[in-house]
Amino acid sequence: MHAALRRGAGRLAGRMLAAAVGTALSLAAVLPAQAQETIKVGILHSLSGTMAISETTLKDVMLMLIEEQNKKGGLLGKKLEAVVVDPASNWPLFAEKARELITKDKVSVVFGCWTSVSRKSVLPVFKELNSILFYPVQYEGEESERNVFYTGAAPNQQAIPAVDYLMKEEKVQRWVLEGTDYVYPRTTNKILEAYLVSKGVKPEDISINYTPFGHSDWQTRVAEIKRFGSAGKKTAVVSTINGDANVPFYKELGNQGVKATDIPVVAFSVGEEELAGVDTKPLLGHLAAWNYFQSIDTPDNKAFIEKWKAFTKNPKRVSNDPMEAHVVGFAMWVKAVEKAGTTDPDKVIDALPGTTAPNLTGGTSEMLPNHHITKPVFIGEIKGDGQFDVVWKTEGLVPGEAWSKYLDGSKDLVADWVKLKCGNYNSKTQKCGG
Amino acid sequence: MLFVGVSAARADAFDDTLQKFLTDSYTDTEAGVTALGAGGDVRAFAVVKALQDGRLLADPAARRVLIDDGGALKDAATGAVVSPAPPPADLKRVRLNNRLRRAVEAALGALTLRAPDPARRLDAAQAVFKSRDAGALPAVEAALSQETDTRVKSALAMARAAILITSPDAPEAARIEAVGMLRERGDQSALALLSALPPGTPATVQGAADSAAAAIRNRLQIWETAQNAWYGVSLGSVLLLAAIGLAITFGVMGVINMAHGEMVMLGAYTTFVVQEAIRQKAFTFAIPGTGIGFSLPLPAALTLDWSLPIAVPLAFVVTGMVGILIEKSVIRFLYGRPLETLLATWGISLILQQAVRTAFGPTNKEVSNPSWMSGAFELGQLSITYNRLWIVCFSLATFAMLLAMLRWTRLGLEMRAVTQNRGMAACVGIRTARIDALTFGLGSGIAGIAGVALSQIDNVSPNLGQSYIIDSFMVVVFGGVGNLWGTLVGAFTLGIANKFLEPFAGAVLGKIAILVLIILFIQRRPRGLFALKGRAVEA
């Protein structure tokens, strides 16, 4: 009874509060610039609730990019104007806020969302109102929409290279796939399981486990991992544990003495930001796979980090992978608008594939016809100071695949919005799934 | 003449090995480490140790390797301090990855088998046991014949067994004897060795290993049950800590306090503030933009080990005050109206969360474990982590103190009187409004000290409290509203049941199963495990 009441009451109160905060914020952003015509950029990231921990940073980085573009003279002779709303980590509210941004604030583009469920919740809105969403977070793939541009990694740009690294470098033969119980880990693990089996790993050497969101008592799981690892074969953990559950997980690993030299853990959702809350000394050598690390030594990255620290007025502020995805996505959008000469969504959507933008790690990313981008893949080891030491990277840039080759349902599907004008064209039946 | 020639040749071999560290390639570095471990040069230990600590620097321009010895740069080949020191930009730290770290541990093990310090010899023997590098066998046997310390001796014998059992050249009898030793050892690493013998192992050895592995598995199964029970106790203590404050505000006073979790969160942030002050060696308070603020220097001897003893009373006071403030400003107008109380306290919880988010930022805060709460110790095959052990003790102590307070102090007496019969208590001259505020403050304060303990195992973020509120209500309702003993029994029952279900059902299903069981139980016994009886129920 309490739980049910609490949830109902919570949703109501949360919505009211979020709506109030959201309106206040968007008012504040709209007022000063009304004098001249502007191009509006919507920012749809949670500033309160459970996801605020990750998403607030992305709002800040967007504000910085917009300010910078305005210093360069704006876009098409107009100033850019940020419209910030707060969907409060509440998935249905994401859809409401997206509608508000597009219909009321008339934004030309939206940068936003973090979790897959929030993306799924705004999809129908963007389709119906024909607007553009840039989605900056690594995700499970199996999707390609005309109105969405995916600047985060698809599974083949993060999960598969990481597993390859463990197989080649660490000679891992036994796998624990440990995840939080929701769509991204479940789909990623399905792809990984199919991939591992295709590489000759026996099913009894794969253990898949899910824990609830925010799981904090990892004693049993860590003991179980130790036991699974004592079968005489080199064992590794592939972690798709999300958000808050990571800190207690790593603390328990450290306390139970699971060292990276015995059982390495490679994580897909642990970046500089997440490690900011952990003492990383016992975690030395555990791994993460990303397309960007703060520690990567390139002139672009250095300049970006300096600007970021100056903008946030915090010399300790860290940068992470989804931030870089926004940097690249924003640069691509600016180029596409310049090329199209207008912010009209149809024209910009047509102009975006083929657009290139330098990423912060020294390469040039390109928007592909399937609305994913090319990215380098890095494997980093956790260092004592909460940063990562890159131990491996792909030769060139890896093109993002919307549909996994390793899943039965999706291996025949092709996404191509340039020639085929379709996000899920079935190459066997030669039909567009629509 | 001849002697000089030989030593020059040896120096060359050592120098050649060192050159491998200059290329910044993991493969070369690994070859270098292995060569140093096998070579037995006296200078090798310093080089490998420096590599492990990240103090080995390559100077590719001058083709030499340097050791950073507390600021002074020493040439690894000669041991002489290099002056003038080359500019830091020219030097590159020799990097490690996991494969290399293993090689380094193995090499260090082989190099320190004869170290004068027995503790280091023990580490070395254990490192060789882990690496089971066949090349180390002569060194192990030599060390074994001279070893006097019994613990080191048995560790060395174990290392020897680990090498022999996997070595195809070893005589069969020796390998079977090794199987016997590992069977004695009986832990997970022995099991790992026994269940992965290389192909081509003679049938007799394989047979002995299989039966030994089966025996170890059986024995570990029993230990596993004990381990699960311990995990259950540990989870139960966390539940108890989280729920015990609620047992006062909800159980004794009857206030549905949705802001209870936020009191826990405030306690955790208090711990963070204390630790931050200790790190900065000063307590600084400032309101940004106003210039109002002060800084209080702290004694330098104060280390993080003291942070928890300081944070516990502080958290109690801080959250107790917040609790009294909430009671005085909101809750006292809402007694007897549970739905309004629920909504109002839920609103307070959102306000507190967002306030903390604004003040401290949305990201997790680092709260480190004091040294006496880090690591684990082995009890048989049971691995017990210190932080969990302390939390079990701490929650039981908190419970005992609360019980004693209610039983033997005047405030406790008045609290019981007011909650049992408000009207009568007022008649005998107890200021009930004041007692209400103090009781609520006490419950909140206890939630705050729970936060100090939880900061050691969970995230310190504005959402900390939310993850505990449902569990807390569950414990209190299950244990029986208004009964502290019920809360204790309820917490440990739920903790242990959860941990025995988890290995079979998984964490998600386990949690669901527990919820279903509680619902069924409440259907049968609506008042929980320990129902209050008599007049108090109607009051």
From TrEMBL, chain A:
<feature type="signal peptide">
    <location>
        <begin position="1"/>
        <end position="35"/>
    </location>
</feature>
<dbReference type="InterPro" id="IPR017777">
    <property type="entry name" value="ABC_urea-bd_UrtA"/>
</dbReference>
<dbReference type="Pfam" id="PF13433">
    <property type="entry name" value="Peripla_BP_5"/>
</dbReference>
<dbReference type="InterPro" id="IPR028082">
    <property type="entry name" value="Peripla_BP_I"/>
</dbReference>
<protein>
    <submittedName>
        <fullName>Urea ABC transporter substrate-binding protein</fullName>
    </submittedName>
</protein>
<keyword id="KW-0732">Signal</keyword>
Automatic annotation (TrEMBL), chain B:
<feature type="transmembrane region" description="Helical">
    <location>
        <begin position="306"/>
        <end position="326"/>
    </location>
</feature>
<keyword id="KW-1133">Transmembrane helix</keyword>
<protein>
    <submittedName>
        <fullName>Urea ABC transporter permease subunit UrtB</fullName>
    </submittedName>
</protein>
<dbReference type="GO" id="GO:0006865">
    <property type="term" value="P:amino acid transport"/>
</dbReference>
<keyword id="KW-0813">Transport</keyword>
<keyword id="KW-1003">Cell membrane</keyword>
<feature type="transmembrane region" description="Helical">
    <location>
        <begin position="229"/>
        <end position="256"/>
    </location>
</feature>
<dbReference type="InterPro" id="IPR052157">
    <property type="entry name" value="BCAA_transport_permease"/>
</dbReference>
<keyword id="KW-0029">Amino-acid transport</keyword>
<feature type="transmembrane region" description="Helical">
    <location>
        <begin position="282"/>
        <end position="300"/>
    </location>
</feature>
<feature type="transmembrane region" description="Helical">
    <location>
        <begin position="473"/>
        <end position="497"/>
    </location>
</feature>
<dbReference type="GO" id="GO:0022857">
    <property type="term" value="F:transmembrane transporter activity"/>
</dbReference>
<keyword id="KW-0812">Transmembrane</keyword>
<dbReference type="Pfam" id="PF02653">
    <property type="entry name" value="BPD_transp_2"/>
</dbReference>
<feature type="transmembrane region" description="Helical">
    <location>
        <begin position="389"/>
        <end position="406"/>
    </location>
</feature>
<comment type="similarity">
    <text>Belongs to the binding-protein-dependent transport system permease family. LivHM subfamily.</text>
</comment>
<dbReference type="InterPro" id="IPR017779">
    <property type="entry name" value="ABC_UrtB_bac"/>
</dbReference>
<dbReference type="InterPro" id="IPR001851">
    <property type="entry name" value="ABC_transp_permease"/>
</dbReference>
<feature type="transmembrane region" description="Helical">
    <location>
        <begin position="503"/>
        <end position="522"/>
    </location>
</feature>
<keyword id="KW-0472">Membrane</keyword>
<feature type="transmembrane region" description="Helical">
    <location>
        <begin position="338"/>
        <end position="356"/>
    </location>
</feature>
<dbReference type="GO" id="GO:0005886">
    <property type="term" value="C:plasma membrane"/>
</dbReference>
